[in-house]
Specification:
alpha+beta, 8 strands, about 20% helix, binds zinc ion
Length: about 140
C-alpha cells in the first residue's frame, strides 16, 4: 500500500452536500456559522443549482436539484427525503493524468474524461466501488 502513486493531491477541494432547498439551508451556514456564499450557479450538465461557501482553504458545496430526476434528486430520494453528504472532492494538479492512473491501477471511473463543473473546474467522479461507497470527485482548478 505504500508509495507508488504519481498523482498529486493538493487538498480537500470541497465537500458536496445535497439539500432540498438552497435558500432555506443557506440560512444556517450564513446566519449561524457565519460563512459567506460567493454566489450561486446553475450547472445544467448535472442538473443542479450550486452554492460555494469557502471554509479555510477548502469549501462546502451545497447542491439543490433543478429537476426531479437528476443525481441530487435521486440521492435525496434514496436518503429518505433528507439531504446529506453526497460526495467529497480532492483537488489534483493534472486531472487527465489522475484519471489515467485510477484506470491503470484497475479501478473504475464514472467519468472517463473530465467534464466541466461549477466554477469552471475540470471534474471527474471515481466509481464508488473502489472507495467502498464514497463518491469521490477529482477536481482541477486553476
Ligand atoms: Zn463537487
Amino acid at each position: 500500500l505504500l508509495g507508488g502513486s504519481r498523482m498529486n493531491i493538493l487538498r480537500v477541494d470541497h465537500v458536496g452536500i445535497a439539500v432540498n432547498n438552497l435558500e432555506e439551508t443557506l440560512k444556517f451556514y450564513e446566519d449561524v456559522l457565519g460563512l459567506k456564499c460567493e454566489g450561486t450557479e446553475i450547472v445544467e450538465d448535472q442538473k443542479v443549482k450550486v452554492a460555494f461557501l469557502p471554509v479555510g482553504d477548502t469549501e462546502l458545496e451545497l447542491l439543490e436539484s433543478t429537476c426531479e430526476d437528476g443525481p441530487i434528486a435521486k440521492f435525496i430520494a434514496k436518503n429518505g427525503g433528507r439531504g446529506g453528504i453526497q460526495h467529497v472532492a480532492v483537488r489534483v494538479d493534472d486531472i487527465e493524468k489522475a484519471i489515467e492512473e485510477v484506470k491503470e491501477k484497475g479501478y473504475k471511473m464514472i467519468d472517463e474524461k473530465p467534464r466541466y463543473g461549477a466554477g469552471n473546474a475540470k471534474i471527474a467522479f471515481c466509481h464508488p466501488k473502489g472507495t467502498d461507497g464514497v463518491l469521490l470527485e477529482l477536481s482541477e482548478r486553476k
